[in-house]
Design goal:
Helix 12 crosses helix 14. The chain is 28% helix and 24% strand. The protein contains 17 helices and 28 strands.
């Protein structure tokens, strides 16, 4: 055995296969099993080519040629200067002939198949990288026959992760074009479009949509025909695609997939020459498109007042038809895009602009541009106002160094001629001192829960106590007292009083809050309440918030309607407002919204309220709450979702569900908005 091991060691050493330290890491664009190309942490790339009979070998990457060095076996190697992050095409030049690197994957670019290398970004690039625990969509190839070109064509189609399981649901469509010298594979191979879409959809930043990528008939080099002017050449190049997309591609997609076929649910965008094609197609077919994007668009010499039959000159009509116009550029490019945007805006047309910092005419510019663009597609005006809830810091999962305490609080409630004893839990912040005065938050639990639910480690991995402790310790929020009452008379009666009685309790709880709970709590602890009557409670309403989860959210909406004289700040968590007609049938969101507005109009303090609503995209109450709040934006003038006098907001957590684990995280963001440490 010893002789065999010695022989193997000799063999590996003599053939150069003994383990050796290689620079950096294998590039993600290398073919499987290859050791080169490589990239190190300083963004230096390393290349190796086996060419024993060559006299001279170079690498051409990022506009510079690097001469390679030969060893005694004919293996050529070299390293580059630090390269800019992003994706780059490159070639190996062997004795003056440009060839592909045998160890690299190839990509269609520069009008041919060519090698490519990715110089990695840091965490900021996660939006275009596949992520764990993010549902993945599919990119599928679809062949179809073009009568206008008398040949078979192919397109690639991205369907969102939910497409296969969403039944009969129909989806909006984005037609996404490549640039000059590239083809229909570019967006999925070089652009990582599918990862951008998966992450944006999973993050709640983009709506689920279908994305179609076809060849824009601009893969071959641009050349002028004999006697042709530059303007004539530009008008001809790729024009054959225009009839294809309108007459053949769109009908094929609508027939093959579950699509929303009206113009309000169709977008088109493209990079470089694809941006030029996007303008030519969409601005002459506004009956079919309402969202338009150009990324480093090759749109030159455009007279905004006259172009496309004066479409921009009719700004009022344009702004009604085009829901979103987006143009972008890399900061190191010189395409004149910013001047184009200014000229379009000068006509009165709306046009959004994005500049990618530090990038040239390259895929990193276009990845960033797509990520910006898709977040604005196919959203209603109200949906654009929804705030995206981000994950809370990891530090919340551990107890804070300075911890508050939770104690039982008992109080008496008047019920006709009788008095009954009820209880609540009260959180007192670390260092609670009766010489100081504290704001108070009242939080109502959900149906079937009790006064301990917000604070229970069994209900959530991050109990509310930890959230509060960290907010106060980090000085994101001033110390507050938090009170969690119960709407049940006692724990034994939980769930036994029926839904109808529970809803009636929702309507009536404002009386108990104002007449019994607030005076009892806020005279026992050090707060801003001076006195016990309703006048004293009203005078201190600025220092009081009321929120609730699920059924507790219904309590919150009713508290807003009936008891805003006692409370100024409201935090409905995953729950909408239920309003019934005489037959006890629940009314539509618009009816509930109008009722709420009427209630506030009648009240003294109805115009001086603040509402911070939260829910999750997977929450069973998420869609109903969103629909109700959208109805408020349309049917309740007292609620203002934007502007200086904004008094209501809706925040939604991507993947957020109906449980205290998410609810407590919402409070991490909501409470500093009310009493942040300014």
């Amino acid at each position: 055995m010893k002789r065999i091991l010695t022989f193997i060691a000799f063999l590996l050493t003599s053939t150069g296969l003994w383990a050796q330290t290689l620079p950096g890491k294998v590039s993600e664009t290398a073919i499987p099993g290859a050791e080169y190309p490589r990239v190190d942490d300083n963004r230096i790339a390393y290349f190796q080519v086996n060419a024993p009979k060559a006299a001279k070998v170079e690498v051409d990457v990022c506009g510079k040629k690097y001469e390679m060095k030969r060893d005694d076996k004919g293996v050529w190697t070299c390293s580059t200067q630090p390269l800019v992050v992003g994706f780059h095409y490159y070639s190996i030049i062997v004795d003056g002939v440009s060839v592909n690197d045998p160890q690299s994957q190839t990509y269609f670019g520069c009008c041919r198949q060519v090698s490519g290398i990715e110089i990695p970004e840091g965490k900021e690039a996660d939006y275009y990288r596949p992520q764990q625990n993010v549902a993945k969509g599919q990119v599928r190839e679809l062949p179809y026959y073009s009568k206008s070109q008398n040949k078979w064509r192919r397109c690639f189609v991205y369907t969102p992760a939910e497409y296969e399981t969403s039944g009969k649901k129909k989806y909006p469509v984005l037609y996404l074009q490549h640039g000059m010298g590239e083809d229909e594979t570019g967006w999925s191979k070089q652009g990582y479009m599918q990862h951008i879409m998966d992450n944006a959809i999973a993050g709640g930043e983009a709506k689920p949509m279908i994305v179609v990528m076809d060849n824009g008939d601009c893969s071959m080099p641009f050349t002028l025909a004999k006697g042709e002017t530059m303007a004539e050449g530009h008008a001809r190049y790729g024009k054959s695609f225009y009839k294809v997309i309108i007459d053949e591609l769109i009908p094929t997609i609508d027939k093959t997939f579950r699509t929303l076929t009206d113009r309000d649910h169709r977008a088109m965008a493209g990079l470089s020459w694809g941006g030029h094609e996007t303008f030519d197609v969409t601005l002459t077919n506004l009956d079919k498109f309402s969202y338009i994007g150009g990324f480093s668009g090759a749109i030159f010499g455009l007279d905004a007042k006259k172009a496309y039959d004066g479409v921009f000159a009719k700004s009022e009509e344009f702004n009604k038809k085009v829901h979103y116009l987006f143009l972008s550029i890399g900061s190191e490019e010189n395409f004149g895009t910013q001047k184009l945007v200014e000229s379009i805006r000068a006509t009165g047309c709306k046009c959004d602009f994005y500049e990618s910092p530090g990038t040239h005419h390259e895929w990193l510019t276009w990845r960033r541009s797509l990520n910006q663009f898709v977040k604005h597609l196919f959203k209603t005006d109200f949906e654009k106002k929804i705030i995206n809830v981000k994950p809370v810091p990891q530090s919340l999962s551990k107890s804070a160094a300075k911890q508050g305490k939770v104690e039982l609080f008992k109080y008496m409630v008047k019920r006709g001629d009788k008095k009954i004893e009820k209880h609540a839990r009260v959180y007192l912040p670390y260092g609670y001192n009766k010489r100081n005065r504290y704001n108070v938050v009242y939080l109502m639990h959900g149906g079937g829960d009790n006064s301990t639910s917000f604070f229970s480690p069994e209900r959530a991995p991050i109990p509310l106590t930890q959230v509060l402790d960290h907010l106060i310790e980090s000085k994101k929020m001033n110390p507050v007292i938090v009170v969690t009452p119960t709407f049940y008379d006692d724990d034994e009666n939980i769930g036994k009083n029926g839904m109808e009685n529970a809803i009636q309790e929702c309507r009536d709880f404002h009386k108990e809050l104002q007449d019994d709970l607030i005076p009892a709590v806020e005279k026992h602890y050090s707060t801003y309440l001076k006195g016990k009557d309703s006048t004293a409670v009203a005078k201190s309403r600025d220092h009081r918030a009321f929120g609730g989860f699920s059924m507790g959210a219904l309590y919150t909406w009713y508290q807003l309607a009936y008891g805003n004289s006692a409370v100024k700040h409201f935090i409905p968590l995953s729950g909408d407002l239920w309003v019934y007609d005489a037959a006890k049938k629940k009314q539509a969101p618009a009816v509930a919204a109008t009722w709420m507005n009427d209630m506030l109009e009648k009240s003294v303090y109805g115009k001086d309220i603040k509402v911070y609503a939260y829910t999750g995209t997977k929450d069973l109450a998420g869609e109903p709450q969103k629909n109700f709040m959208e109805a408020l934006s349309k049917s309740a003038p007292l609620f203002r979702f934007d502007g200086e006098n904004k008094n209501i907001s809706l925040s939604m957590k991507p993947g957020g569900d109906h449980w205290y684990g998410d609810i407590n995280q919402y409070l991490y963001y909501a409470l500093p908005l009310i009493w942040g440490n300014k």
